[in-house]
Amino acid sequence: MKVAFIGLGNMGGGMAANLVKAGHEVRAFDLSPEALDRAKDNGCAVFGTVQEAVADAEAVVSMLPNGAIVDAVYGADVIGHAPKGALFLDCSTIDVDTARKVTKAAESAGYEMVDAPVSGGIAAANGGTLTFMVGGTDNAFARAEPILAAMGKAVIHAGASGAGQAAKICNNMLLGASMIATCETFKLAEKLGLDLQTFYDISSKASGQNWSMTSYCPVPGVGPQSPADNGYQGGFAAALMLKDLKLAMEAAASVDAIVPMGEKAASLYEAFARYGSGGMDFSGIIKTL
Ligand code: NAD
Asked: Which positions are catalytic?
């Protein structure tokens, strides 16, 4: 297929390369010349504007920083410029309301669109092992599935438009809160004189077990290899966790949901980022406890 790809940064660069490997003709645009150079090296055709990249495309994939940019790019340069009937797949993490608004505008102009945010970081984007959570109609999902499958290990239909973004921020709110709970628990265990490997062996087989402990342990040398074993570098940046928690707080406010643990996690990650640690892996928040 001819697939336009908008936003070839840390995540989009590897995703576009995997579409090329799967045999798609990828037509790339990014504001950054460096990102475009990398895309060209990975076999993409590069264009000087969004409108040129989408002009001939059967599908448009976007991987952009936030909802305002997604809204602006689709509103100004994709809707009405891609061929009628093209499928749009926005893989960025954005707010649910903007995802629904852009999809509605696309549908009114004769396109189908899915929100398809991802779980998994830069390594999963490069390795083609992302998990996609997809919001959209059954028909749009059926069209999107094979395109997304070339970039990931799992493609899950979460529900109607916006459901992909809703699933993503609910998952990451749980992850943010459970990471902090795991960190403070290990610090308490340490202060109570427990050997941390022994505590891990117990808790990972007891009812406190959770992903932040057994797949991404924030304590160096305990559990499988994780960013904690690399000075909290690489992995999922605390600034991105904060972005997702803020989206979760906005979404919670919009539906009057009570989320005290999510609020606390958002305020702790806000402080962590404010004091200069936004680039550190999100498990590095253990250093503040
Ligand atoms: P990034 O900043 O590395 O890449 C974004 C790219 O978009 C940049 O290359 C930038 O030049 C480009 N861009 C910005 N405005 C543009 C415009 N108007 N037109 C064209 N290109 C434009 O960010 P990233 O880490 O690749 O993240 C992208 C999205 O993926 C975000 O929504 C993020 O929340 C989400 N995400 C990131 C991770 C991660 O680990 N990095 C994990 C899951 C989800």
From this structure: 168
Distance in Å, CA 270 to ligand 1 centroid:
20
The finding on whether 16 has its CB within 6 A of some atom of ligand 1 is no
Q: pLDDT tens digits, residue range 183-204?
A: 999 999 999 999 999 999 999 9
Tell me the pLDDT tens digit for each residue of 79-110.
Answer: 999 999 999 999 999 999 999 999 999 999 99
With bands split at pLDDT 50, 70 and 90, how would you rate the model's confidence at 227? Answer: very high
State the distance between the two ends of the chain, measured CA to CA, in whole angstroms: 50
CA 118 to chain centre: 4
Q: Which two tokens stand for residue 222?
A: 């305990």
DSSP string spanning 150-205?
TTEEEEEEEESTTHHHHHHHHHHHHHHHHHHHHHHHHHHHHHTT--HHHHHHHHTT
The secondary element (H helix, E strand) that includes residue 54 is: helix 50-54
Distance between CA atoms of 196 and 188, rounded to whole angstroms? 10
Contact 240 CB / ligand 1 (< 6 Å): yes
| Exposure letters 204-236 (e unless 16+ CB within 10 A, then b) | eeeeeebebbeebbbbeebbeebbbeeebeebb
169 lines ligand 1 (CB under 6 A): no
Q: Which atom of ligand 1 is nearest to the CA of 35?
A: 9
Ligand 1 touching residue 15 (CB < 6 A): no
The mean pLDDT value for 24-53 works out to 98
Distance between CA atoms of residues 282 and 228, nearest Å? 10
Are 27 and 53 in contact by the 8 Å Cβ rule? The answer is yes
